[in-house]
Amino acid sequence: MMELPTLSHDFRFLIRGARILAVLWLVTALGTGCSVVDRMMYSTTGDVMEGFSRDHTMPYLLATDDLAMGCAMSEATAPLLMSFGRVTDQPDQLAVMLYLSAGSCAEDQAREHELAALAALKAVRVDDAEDAMIRQKRAYERAASRYYQAWRHHNAFYGEVGSGGCPEFDDDLDEFIYLAGLLSGLQALNAQVQSTSAIGVPANLGAVVARGTACLSNDKWWGAPMALRATVWAMIPGALPQGEDPFQRLAMADAQGEAAGVRLAHVFHAIAALNTGDEARIREVIRRHAESLQTDSASDDWRFVDAMATHMMVAISDRLWMENTGHRTPLGRFGSFWDDAPAAVETMDLEGLL
Q1: How far apart are CA 264 and CA 222, in angstroms?
Q2: Residue 29 pLDDT
Q3: 280-299: per-residue pLDDT in tens?
């Protein structure tokens, strides 16, 4: 009878080692399988959430005019949506809108604290005024941080502004988010100045933003790119090109915004006038905005942007009213001021009827 060859000691050792490795692999696979599956599910969920937010939530919100709801949504959902960047690509484009909106929430709080400070000063409550001003600066610091976060995500998605050519836009929303990113950069710089603290916003950011506006059509975007550029010219010493008049450009942009039903240019015009201390011009822009609201309907697709512009113009009006009267703009009085001459009232001569 033929005997089977016996396995050598070395070969038996190799088989035993292979079995041990197989068991270890199985245990490892079972132990990590859930995390692998979870990661795939999280990644897919993140991609779906980002795509839905961009294609549906954002256009829906832009067609509404409830700014408070938009503000609450951005603050509440930003951590959730941004956390998907841990398991998939960073949602940089979506982040531009989230942090721009969240920054405007903080800036709103800063303006409320400023009004409280002005009211306290008017009532000679010095301690209350000082406390409100401290809260105002803290809120502006938070706003600057959020705006600058939006700016960094903007550059991550579109490339460094001013360092090369213009990006290729896929659609109108893509182009609008580029404009929103430029606005976030300018707002980051302005909020940092208002906070009187340094959070790392470069001092030359305004000039960079102005260069970025060249990538956008002024006619298509309601005169806003030119208005933004002219505001930088008015705010930054030495930025004004030879032969240009920033306020002439801003007036032209105002007309474009009114005709389009998106009056964002008025905000830039008022900011530029505030920077130069020209109260007469500020009043003129506020009156023009109020009159336009009566004659020019808001754009159906960009109602949110137009409502935001009106909200900011009312805030500027409130500041003027508070400084001079101790209260904000009365209801129904936006576009008028405390020292306006009384409107002429037509009277009927009754003497001949008696």
Answers
A1: 8
A2: 47
A3: 999 999 999 999 999 999 99
Q: Helix, strand or coil for residue 8?
A: coil
Contact present, 116 and 86 (Cβ < 8 Å): no
In whole angstroms, give the CA distance from residue 306 to residue 62.
9
pLDDT of residue 165: 85
Contact 42, 87 (CB under 8 A): yes
Structure tokens at 39: 């990661």
What is each CA distance from 184 to 45, 91, 219, 220, 337, in whole angstroms?
28, 17, 21, 20, 31
If you compute the radius of gyration of the chain from its CA atoms, what whole number of angstroms results? 29
The maximal CA–CA distance of the chain, rounded, in angstroms, is: 149
Cβ(64)–Cβ(303) below 8 Å: yes
C-alpha distances in Å from residue 93, one per residue of 104, 179, 208, 297, 330: 18, 12, 19, 29, 39
Residue with tokens 């132990």: 31
Nearest to 299 by CA among 291, 289, 307: 307
Please give the torsion angle defined by the CA atoms of residues 253, 257, 260 and 261, in that order, rounded to the nearest 10 degrees. -170
Distances (CA, A) of 48 to 45, 89, 92: 5, 12, 15
Q: What is 44-88 written as a DSSP string?
A: HHHHHHHHHIIIIIHHHHHT---HHHHHHHHHHHHHHHHHGGGTS
pLDDT of residue 45: 79
Nearest alpha-carbon partner for 269 in 181, 255, 293, 260: 255
pTM equals 0.85
Supply 236's token pair.
């930054």
Q: Which residues of the chain have pLDDT under 70?
A: 1-39, 343-354
Question: Distance (Å, rounded) from C-alpha 106 to C-alpha 183?
Answer: 15
